[in-house]
Amino acid sequence: MSKVSNLRKLGVVARVAKQQAKRSRMVRATTSAVATTARAFGRVLHQLWLEVTGLIFLIMALSFGAATVKEYGKYHAGQAGLGRVAVAICFTVTFAWFGVSSFWRVRRKGRSSVR
């Protein structure tokens, strides 16, 4: 008589339980409800992530904008070079673009889920 390991027995029991669960309307309905809820929460969390990162990028762009004004004042007074002003402008524009495009992505995703 061959000995069957407990792990193999557990696998057989799990397989039979899975087959029985597939036949149950209650289990299928619960699984469907959990999947639908998880998808909805996932969409909302992704939208929230895009909005929060967009806000952070816009705040950073404002900070770089203030630095641009400060560097321009130094440049105008002859205390700093034009390169520092150009770098500050590039950072300001780049972070403003990241922030605005993040909000555009939120809006575009919102429109596509309505259809």
Low-pLDDT stretches are none
Q: How much helical structure, as a percent, in the residues?
A: over 70%
Q: What is the average per-residue confidence, as pLDDT, rounded to a whole number?
A: 89
- Compressed to H and E, one letter per element, the order equals HHH
The number of helical elements comes to: 3
Major beta-sheet overview: none
Portion of residues in beta strands equals under 5%
Overview of this structure, please?
The protein has 3 helices and no strands. With 115 residues, it is mostly helical. Helix 2 (25-76) packs antiparallel against helix 3. The radius of gyration is 28 Å and the shape is elongated. The termini are far apart. The mean pLDDT is 89.
Keywords:
115 residues; mainly alpha
Structure, briefly:
90% of the residues lie in helices and 0% in strands. It is mainly α and 115 residues long.
Write the layout of secondary structure elements.
Layout: H1 6-23, H2 25-76, H3 82-114
Helix pairs in contact: 2-3
